[in-house]
Amino acid sequence: MKKALTIVLALVMALSMSAMAFAADATADAEAILSEIADVAKDNSAWDAVEGALTDVVAALEDKTAELADVEGEVINLNTVLEGIGLPSVDGLVDSLKETIKGMYAGETATVPETTVAEPIEDTGSASVGIAAFAAISVAAAAAYVCTKKN
Predict the structure, then answer these.
(1) By C-alpha distance, which of 119, 75, 81 is closest to 97?
(2) In 43-125, where does DSSP find H-type helix?
(3) DSSP secondary structure letter of residue 111
(4) Lowest-confidence segment of 14-28, 50-64, 78-92 by average pLDDT
(5) Cβ contacts of 57 within 8 Å, gap of 6 or more
(6) Structural domain contains residue 48
(7) Alpha-carbon distance 122 to 102, whole Å?
(8) Rounded to an integer, what distance in angstroms lies between the CA atom of residue 71 and that of residue 103?
(9) 26 pLDDT more than 60
(10) Which uninterrupted H or E stretch holds 125?
(11) How confident is the model at residue 89, as a pLDDT?
């Protein structure tokens, strides 16, 4: 019983020491995020329009005789529908989809990756949390060892 209690105590101590490393951002407002999700979810007609636009894009892609302009038109229609319901940052998805479609019809295009300078890594202090968790586990292991020696 003492061994099990010691192990449970060690796990609780380790989890309590390391929980800070995985804590959520304190500046995020959960109320605002949930209200935005609820506002978008209320408008079912918008989701029906998105589903219809996606169906049209898939149908155009499956039609091997379709012209490239027709397929791009369906993708533009999907982009318009997504922007209509207020989804930002779909340009990257649409560009990727366009490149995939062009690759199906015209082959791969060679792209040169852009070189970037590495940003300096900020000190987050998470090493101290790891050291604290290691210390807690070490103390618990020592306590478990002592408990086994007494018996």
Answers:
(1) 75
(2) 44-62, 68-84, 91-106
(3) -
(4) 14-28
(5) 71, 74, 75, 77, 78, 97
(6) yes
(7) 41
(8) 13
(9) no
(10) none
(11) 47
For the cut 60, the answer to whether the pLDDT of residue 17 exceeds it is yes
Give the integer Cα–Cα distance in Å for 137 and 139.
5
Q: How far apart are CA 120 and CA 46, in angstroms?
A: 43
78 within a domain of the structure (yes/no) = yes
Under DSSP, the state recorded for 121 is P
Residue 62 CA to residue 33 CA, distance in Å, equals: 37
Neighbours of 99 (CB within 10 A): 13
What are 67-113's pLDDT values in tens digits?
878 878 887 787 777 777 766 545 666 676 777 777 766 655 567 77
pTM of the shown model:
0.32
Number of domains present in the structure of the chain: 1
Distance (Å, whole) CA 94 – CA 76: 8
Structure tokens belonging to residue 141? 């292991």
Residue 121 covered by a domain: no
Distance CA 124, CA 134 (A): 18
Domain that holds residue 54: 2-22+29-114+127-150
The answer as to whether 85 is a domain residue is yes
